Amino acid sequence: MVTIKKYPNRRLYDTSQSRYVNMDYIKQLIINHQDFEVVDSKTGGDVTKSILLQIVTESEATEHQSLLTNSLLKQLIRFYDGDMQIYLRSYLEQSLASFMEHQDTIQGMVKNLVEAGPLGVLNKVVEKNIGVWKKAQSELSKNKK
């Protein structure tokens, strides 16, 4: 795990590489699925969440990169201090994890749609279905004899 110290002057220091880093470096750690923590240099307290929120805030600043709409943010805020807050957190974590697991499959399907075009994909589906039906008919005819 990479430990990054956050100093009062807002500088970030990667202790594993003995060098100062910036928010883009931390964002790259996230993209590379590298485990890290950010600690306050004076107290040693974990300040990772505040750094992550800062990255999200900076990413949300440009409309074309935005994932969180105003409506979604308002709905999330309504869950704070409510009875369902812990359930929503768990639901969101599990949903996003599931989405990430299936992301490669989804991207592959979209790529095939783009490359083959709608008629090519439809043709493959029809061929596959015909193969399934022929196999089912063959099995049924074997069972009747």
Secondary structure layout:
Layout: E1 2-6, E2 12-14, E3 19-21, H1 23-31, E4 36-40, H2 48-60, H3 70-79, H4 85-144
Parallel strand pairs: 1-4
Antiparallel strand pairs: 1-2, 2-3
Describe this structure in words.
The chain has 145 residues and is of the alpha+beta class. It has a domain at 1-66. 63% of the residues lie in helices and 11% in strands. It is built from four helices and four strands; from the N terminus they run E-E-E-H-E-H-H-H. It has helices at 23-31, 48-60, 70-79, 85-144, and strands spanning 2-6, 12-14, 19-21, 36-40. Strands 3-2-1-4 form a four-stranded mixed sheet. A hairpin with a 5-residue loop joins strand 1 and strand 2 (12-14). The protein is elongated. 2% of the residues are buried. The model has no long low-confidence stretch (mean pLDDT 87).
